[in-house]
Amino acid sequence: MMDSRETSDTGSCSHKGDRVEIDMRAPFESVKAAVSMFGERAIGDKITKKRLEIPEEKRQISNETQLHLLQKDFAKLREQLKNTETTKAQAQVELTEAKKVVEDLSWKLGKATESREKAYKASEIARLRAEEVCATNTDNGKPDNTGWHLDLTAARNELIAATAELEDAKKRA
Predict the structure, then answer these.
(1) What is the dihedral of CA 72, 74, 80, 81, to 10 degrees?
(2) Residue closest to 134 by CA, chosen among 146, 122, 125, 143
(3) Is the pLDDT of residue 9 over 50?
(4) Residues 158-169: pLDDT tens digits?
(5) What's the total number of domains in the chain?
(6) CA–CA distance, 136 with 148 (Å, rounded to integer)
(7) Fewer CB atoms inside 10 Å of the end CB: C or N, the chain?
(8) Is position 76 within any domain?
(9) Are residues 43 and 96 in the same domain?
(10) Which domain holds residue 41?
(11) In terms of domains, do 38 and 64 share one?
């Protein structure tokens, strides 16, 4: 039998003689826990389960309510899908535009690099010509004001132009 200090699984109090003990367990965590405790009745040694009968009308209303809620959820999900597809389309357009910008900038960078290389080569050629003219001038021993002076001036002008073009290419790159 049950000790006077123990509580019953199906009730909240136990009796033994003149003593009554109160169930001090934690409250029910859910309705399911309460039904599982009180939904069964102990009659003697037999335990019978108490079945709740839900009328057909209430079951039908419940099904209709669930159908209505599911239709609302479906409409919300359809709207979310539409918004997601719109966002995806916008992102694809932006990606295409970004690719075009990258291609354009790559082309411009290639042109700037090519221009810089040409300017560098031209300045190097002008420098070599200037050195050659200076070397030719020192080989003769006497200055020739007509030939080498004009060549030197032309080489210097080419060097200045090539250097300016090089600087311009650097600024664009």
Answers:
(1) -160
(2) 143
(3) no
(4) 888 888 888 887
(5) 2
(6) 8
(7) N
(8) yes
(9) no
(10) 13-49
(11) no
